[in-house]
Every structure is written in structure tokens, then in C-alpha cells.
Amino acid sequence: MASLFFLLILTFSSIFSNTFAADSNDHLKTYIVYMGELPKSDFSVASLHTNMLQKVIGSRESKSLLWSYEKSFNGFVAKLTEDEKNKLELFPSETQHLHTTRSWDFIGFPQDVKRAPLESDVIVGVLDTGAWPESDSFNDDGFGPPPDKWKGSCDSTNFTCNNKLIGAKYFNIDGFAGDEELSARDIDGHGTHTASTVAGRAVNNASLLGLANGVARGGVPSARIAIYKICHLRGCSDADILAGFDNAISDGVDIISLSVGGRIITYFRDSIAIGAFHAMKNGILTSNSAGNSGPRLGSVSNTAPWSLSVAASSIDRKFFAQIVLGNNITYEGAAINTFDGVIYPIVDGASVPNTKNGSASSDSRYCLPDTLDPTLVKNKIVVCKDLIDPAESALLSGASGVVIESDLGDEDYEATSYPLPATYLSIKEGNDVLTYINSTKTPSAIILKSNEVVDEAAPTVVFFSSRGPNLITPDILKPDLTAPGAEILAAWSQGTTVTGEQGDTRVVPYNIISGTSMSCPHVSAAAAYVKSFHPTWSPAAIKSALMTTTTQLSPSKNTDAEFAYGSGQINPIKAVDPGLVYDAGEQDFVSFLCGQGYSNIALSIITGDSGVCSPATNATVWDLNYPSFALSANKPGSSVSRTFHRTVTNVGSADSSYQVNVVAPLGMVVKVDPTTLAFKQVGEKQSFVVTVDATVGSNVISGSLVWSDGVHKVTSPIVAFFFPTF
Ligand SMILES: *[C@@H]1O[C@H](CO)[C@@H](O)[C@H](O)[C@H]1NC(C)=O
Ligand SMILES: *[C@@H]1O[C@H](CO)[C@@H](O)[C@H](O)[C@H]1NC(C)=O
Ligand SMILES: *[C@@H]1O[C@H](CO)[C@@H](O)[C@H](O)[C@H]1NC(C)=O
Ligand SMILES: *[C@@H]1O[C@H](CO)[C@@H](O)[C@H](O)[C@H]1NC(C)=O
Ligand SMILES: *[C@@H]1O[C@H](CO)[C@@H](O)[C@H](O)[C@H]1NC(C)=O
Ligand SMILES: *[C@@H]1O[C@H](CO)[C@@H](O)[C@H](O)[C@H]1NC(C)=O
Asked: Which of 82, 421, 513, 722 is 20 to 30 A from residue 1's alpha carbon, by CA?
């Protein structure tokens, strides 16, 4: 029988705790009992789960077992009391959140790029909010039947699959769908957007009501898409995330795209890391978003070394909305405004509090819900300070436009959509508008439809993109790389509106949104593109190919350097021919985990084997065969010295010789031995040792190591930094 060491995930959201308490048994909570590998024998796993549960709940009459994971790994979801839970070994978990086309051209991946015939055999599993199956991006004209390896199904009501969208399943194990329709149909938009960014077919004349007009296309337009709806409007439960992985793996997907996350948590309590580990064992690379919690250092999530963690960077197109005041002075702010301009009177929110409701101008200046006097804002533009969603509440109070003033107006902030004409100004410009309002008896203004502006500074990592260092394993550099994630046009759900906010009536087939959720599917597509040329490459080999062929970003425009962009911006064309790869398999990751001090018990949950750690299998973090190099010192101003063992596999030409080239800044000394690697055959492996001595200040110091044969440049960043031990 499988190891009876098990961990539990408590699926419980603080935000939605009331919903659970409203259940018939308010002392019961939902837990995931995660047991690692499937047993090798062929008895029913579900009956094993029932038996185990029986021992814990005794004779209590209850439909406790909600779900059995029995396809790709072993575990179940159950409703238990606190006492019952305590009879099992535990770890808690919460709700995960969605990290919310010109981009392909911008990164040098044109529509007519060379394609492998096998691209139409590649299946990308998208774990998200579902998809809108009728979108033009998922039209299957010209597609043959799915490849034979496909074992999935279209297991959803109100959803028709086709030869493009070949599978659809939804999960609602612990009731996160609430009273939403139980269907893989997307009523949020996020999943339709990410799935079409990965593998939507090319659609001409796509735009958001005329903005960003052009061809909307996924990175691998011939690939197939399988939809796993693991997120509902409320969020994404760990139970559903694991069910998505379990099914995607057994259905036969090649790449998993997952733009979800939130917590920074040890690998064994992280449903996404656990699911991705099983995917990796089955030859499937998982591409994850790095998170939208930047620019705070140490905010990067989804840091498991067997997955990709993707930052978000800008493309060379930005959207600005101008406001022209009655005195003809014009200001411009980042905003996606699809509305045609109309002249309206303009008022300061602070001057129109809803006194009948007891509101004061200290509330109405932020346009908080119900704090504006409807009779004084009707058919007017209102100026609001940014706090919580001033645009939605201004609209609900009857306003016809909104000027939002914010500290972030000075930052390089991403343009977003609002449910009414809007622009987004800095505090200083906002004040100028207020001064104008005070200067005349009949202040008026017009907010114009957004214009597209060329951003010469691109690519830069955007403000919100989560930054390193990696708090779980500091000496694994995260994020791994970056891709476009700002103001991306892609398909949208017709089951919602542009913003999804109250009062928005714009139902659109394409929408423009920003997030590491949008950069992640770019990398999923790049991985699928590499896989279509090299179907036998391991997840780590594909990941290495993507990371060692990136375009460097400018450290002067990105002050957090590699903590912002990792190895750099993806270059899918180069990734198909990287020359050398840093490969790694399950045993390498297990040795790494052993070396990190994880117990045999914890590891057996993942591997299914007991006693996997031994001194012989114990590898230091510096010896994991990772395509980047990181070393931390725990005191600022101190020196640190580390030795890295690495092995590269020749995937270029048979007879080749690579020379090393090291770039090291002041304060960093790098030695590589040997400095030449000669290969006779494709598939041959060669090892080398890198020794780095660094004196770190308060900022990250960055060098690089490049293996070059004159054709390929296999590039890895080397970063040294101060990392406080907590
Ligand atoms: C492009 O789409 C718009 C609506 O989004 C439509 O009005 C226009 O006629 C289309 N143009 C072409 C050439 O199809
Ligand atoms: C603003 O510009 C318009 C058109 O250029 C002009 O007709 C109008 O008189 C100007 N108004 C003021 C207040 O300068
Ligand atoms: C006061 O606010 C409530 C909502 O909280 C709203 O329904 C009501 O119409 C408001 N009353 C007035 C007089 O504005
Ligand atoms: C505009 O006038 C109001 C009311 O007199 C005053 O509170 C506010 O400070 C003035 N704002 C500016 C920017 O002059
Ligand atoms: C299918 O989904 C659409 C869009 O969400 C919804 O309007 C419709 O009622 C659903 N149909 C059924 C039969 O549930
Ligand atoms: C592996 O290394 C870690 C960290 O140095 C140590 O805690 C652990 O005891 C070692 N395990 C074995 C089996 O040697």
C-alpha cells in the first residue's frame, strides 16, 4: 500500500469563511488529504480513501468524502471536524488568486515564423477560469482530429469542444462555484484571455472597441487547448487546482499553463508546486506567473525549481487617455478609455458629499460607495482620489466620467479599463485640475478616447510584477524570466463585460488587460513551440532552452535587475536551438530537496518512496543543475564564496567546442573549470565547476556566464546578494 504518511491541506478562505459557516454542519471544514504517488497495485484508490476516512470519522453519519484524486496522484478531499483533522497530519491552505497583439511581434516572434509540423500535436492544458468556446480564437476550421495520445474529454455542460479546444472539465470540489453555472464556460474572461494567448488561432481585425486593432494570435496557433476550470469568480481552491493537475496529466497534455498563485509557502504545502512536481515527473513543464505583488522585494511566488516563474514586462505600445479642460489645458494619464469624448461639467468629489446619507467630504473625495450626492454628480465628470475603485462608485452615483488622482500616477503604471470615461493622473496634475475647477464658475472638461503611444523604453519589468529574491530557496534565482504582460489584447468572455464591474455594459470579444497572468501564457506558448521541435525534451531541458536564450533587459531601466527579470525576456526562435541545455530530472529535484533538509517523510509524499534521502543523494542548492546561478550572503558588506557543479547536454551540432566567457562586475570573481567543453556527439554531457567569490552590498550584483561555440551563446546570469536570515 502507498505510504500512509500524508499531509492535509486545509481548504478554507478567510474572505469567504461565512460561506463555509453557512453550510449545514458549521463545525465541518474542507480538507485535502494529499498522499503523493498512486499505489502500484490496482485496487480501487477511492475505496482506500473511504476506508481511511471511516477510521477517522468512525460512525459519524456524513457524506464526508467529496473527491478522490486517483488519476495521477493519490489523495482525497473531505469535510472533517477539527478533532478528526487532528487525527491526520496536516498542512493548511487557502484560496489562490488569478494573477490578472502586438506582444509576439514585439519580442521578435512574427506571424510567419518557421513552424514544426508537430505543432498541431502539442496540447496545452490551461488551468484557469474556463474558456468562451465560441470565441473566434478557438475556431477549429482546418484542424484535424486531436492527436492519438489525447485521453481527455469534453466533460462540461453548456460547452462544445472542437478540434482546437479539445477538452474541457470543471472542478467544484469544495463548493467554490457557489451558485455559478457548473460549466467550463468562462464568465470571468481571464481564462479565455490566457488560453488564446497561448494557442488562439490568428484573428484579423481584433480590437477592444477599436483600440489595439490588429491580428490577435496565440504563440502556437496550431496547438490544441485543453481547459481545466479550477477558478471561479470567488477564487481558486487548492482542491480544484490539484484536481486540474491530476486530470491534465492523465489526459496527456504537453505543457501546463497556470496563471494563478498567491502564497509564498514551502513546496510541500503548495498545491501548485505539488501538482507541478507530478507534471514534471510525467514529462510536462508547468509555466507559472510570478505574481502581481511587486515592486516589493521578496514578493515572487510560485518558486518551485521544477516550474517556470514568469515576470511581466512592457511592450512598446501604451494607452493614454487625455482630458481637455475648458481652458484648453490638456493632461494625459495611463488609462484604457474606449468611450468617445463628450463635454461635461467637472466637479471635485470632495465638494459633493452625499450629506443626506451623512457622508463628509473626507469620504467623498475618494468617491467611496454612496458618498457622492447623485443630484450633484449626475452628467458630470468627478475628480476622485484613488482608494477603492472610485470609478465604479462614481458611475453608480450617476457620474459621466471620472478623473482618478493617485501616487501611482507618477509611476510607470499600467493602463486599466474603467466602466465609464476615465483617466488616471498624478497627484500634482490632479491638483492642477482642482485649481482649474476653483478658478471658474462653469468648469468643464472632455475625456477623450485613448490613444496608442509608442513606448521607447520597452521592455521594462512592470511595476506590479513580483520581485525576487526567492524567499523559499534564496539561492535559486526567481523569477526565471520575463515576457510581455502589460496591456495585452486577447480573447474575452461574452459572459462578462470589459471590467466586470456594475454598470459596465460593454460585452466584447477581445479585451486588453495586464498581469503576470498575461506573461505566463506567452512563456507556456514558447515552451510549446520548443516542444513542437523537440518532443522528447524533458521539462528542465525546455526550461533551460528558454532561459539561456533570452534577450537581456537593461539593468539601468530595471533597478531590481535579475530580481525583476530573471534571465531576461523570452526569445522563442532562439530557444528552439539553444546549443546546450542544463537538464535535470526527478532525482535531481529530490536530491535538491534532501539537501534543503526536507524530511524523508515530507519527500515520500511527493515521491512515493521511503528513505529517498541519503548522504549520497544529498545535493546542495548550488549543485542543482539550474540554468542560472545565485548566491546569498546573510550580512550586508560580507563576502560569500560558493562552488557550483553543472552539467550541460549538447543539443546543437555533433562536433562542437564551447568556450566560456564570464562577465563579472566589481566585487565578484568567477572561476570556471574547464574553460572549454568539446563534444563529439549530440546528447553528450560535459560537466564543469563554477566558483564565485562575491562581496555584497545592499544591492544585487550581477554577472553572467556564457558558453559559446561561435553560433550559440548559452547565457546564465550570476547574482550575488544580501539575504537576511529571519
Ligand atoms: C473590423 O472590425 C470592426 C468592428 O470591430 C468593423 O466595424 C470593421 O468593419 C471591421 N473591418 C474589417 C475590414 O473587417
Ligand atoms: C479652446 O480651443 C478651441 C479650439 O481650438 C477654441 O475654439 C476655444 O476658443 C479655446 N478656448 C479657450 C478657453 O481658450
Ligand atoms: C443612501 O445610501 C443608500 C445605500 O447605502 C442608498 O440606497 C440611498 O439611496 C442613499 N440615500 C440618499 C438619500 O442618497
Ligand atoms: C478648491 O476650493 C475648495 C473649496 O474652497 C478648497 O477646499 C480646495 O482646497 C481648493 N483646491 C485647490 C486645488 O485650490
Ligand atoms: C450557457 O451559458 C450562457 C452564458 O453564461 C448562459 O447565458 C446560458 O444561460 C447557459 N445555458 C444553459 C443551458 O445553462
Ligand atoms: C542532507 O543535507 C541537509 C542539509 O545539509 C541535512 O540537514 C540532512 O541531514 C542531510 N541528509 C542526509 C540524509 O545526509
From this structure: 82
